[in-house]
């Protein structure tokens, strides 16, 4: 009796367990490839053909389903504690000049590098409001 159907069943089980233990879709394609190879092996097809079928079906499943899986696995970006600074007021501790790439603001006791949201030069000592955060820089506007 040909042992290959049992080998393919083993591959199906192992790949399904691996898939179940991961948080990403990493081996589901091989489950489908092994399933089709298992079916082909039941008809007595040679081992090289079974391997080609396994590789082909796994590849096709990956190509067809990967975009869908990526879309489904997209998680919402978690906001950091930095978001608490948006809307807060601060004091300019170093003149903000976007063209020179300089500027600092003290907001709630934390000193940040800053840029003017409207591109204006903001003098040292001015009161500003934080509009947003871009990387590690605050985008601020002068409070009138």
Give the structure's gist in a few sentences.
Helices cover 41% and strands 25% of the residues.
Figure out the total of helices. 3
Could you give the order of strands across the largest sheet?
Answer: 1-2-3-5-4
The dominant shape is rod-shaped
Task: Report low-confidence residues grouped into runs of 5 or more.
Answer: none
Helix fraction bin: 40-55%
Profile the largest sheet: 5 strands, mixed, barrel
- Spatial separation of the terminal alpha carbons: 87 Å
H-E order = HHHEEEEE
Rg on CA atoms, Å:
29 Å
**Overall pLDDT, averaged?**
90
**Percentage beta strand:** 25-35%
Q: What is the count of β-strands? A: 5
Instruction: Decide which structural class fits the backbone.
Output: alpha+beta
Report on the structure:
The protein has three helices and five strands. Helices cover about 40% and strands about 25% of the residues. Helix 1 runs antiparallel to helix 2 and helix 2 runs antiparallel to helix 3. The longest helix is centred in the middle third of the chain and has 26 residues. It has a five-stranded mixed β-barrel with strand order 1-2-3-5-4. The protein is an alpha+beta fold and about 140 residues long. A hairpin with a 2-residue loop joins strand 2 and strand 3.
